[in-house]
Specification:
The protein is built from 1 helix and 8 strands, in the order H-E-E-E-E-E-E-E-E. The protein has about 120 residues and is mainly beta. The strands form 2 sheets. Strands 2-8-7-4-5 form a 5-stranded mixed β-sheet, with no helix packed on it. A 3-stranded antiparallel β-sheet has the order 1-3-6, with no helix packed on it. A hairpin with a 2-residue loop joins strand 4 and strand 5.
């Protein structure tokens, strides 16, 4: 086989490879949260979690509990939890409306994503 023919064959194959669709990372999705969005808890919660559809970087992720615009607690996720779950313990919260704000860095493409989960704790009767 001539060198010219080999070069043409290699270039043609390379063109076909370049035309193939490239697999990309799936978008990050929240599958479940605790507390659930807009939940009204009858007793104070001491644990918070957000479960995703893919692994996240626990070291570079945070959970923040807010009361209005005020940060009540900045939580550090447990490193021993499932790779796709951020879990952290927090002190008991007083009755009122809160937001669990999460910030994560994805493992697959190192994107930083964030979101909010509103919830409230009812006044004891």
């Amino acid at each position: 086989m001539s060198l010219r023919w080999m070069a043409i064959t290699v270039l043609a194959c390379t063109g076909w490879l370049a035309a193939l669709p490239v697999a990309h990372a799936e978008d990050l999705k929240v599958l479940e949260t605790g507390p659930a969005a807009n939940a009204v808890l009858s007793s104070p919660s001491d644990g918070f979690f957000v479960r995703f559809n893919q692994p996240v970087d626990h070291i570079n992720s945070r959970l923040i509990v807010k009361h209005g615009a005020d940060v009540v607690e900045t939580l550090v996720p447990r490193l021993q939890s499932n790779p796709n779950v951020l879990f952290a313990r927090a002190p008991s919260l007083a009755p009122g409306s809160y937001t669990l704000h999460w910030t994560v860095k994805t493992i697959q493409d190192a994107k930083v994503e964030q979101g909010d989960v509103p919830f409230s704790i009812a006044t004891p009767k």
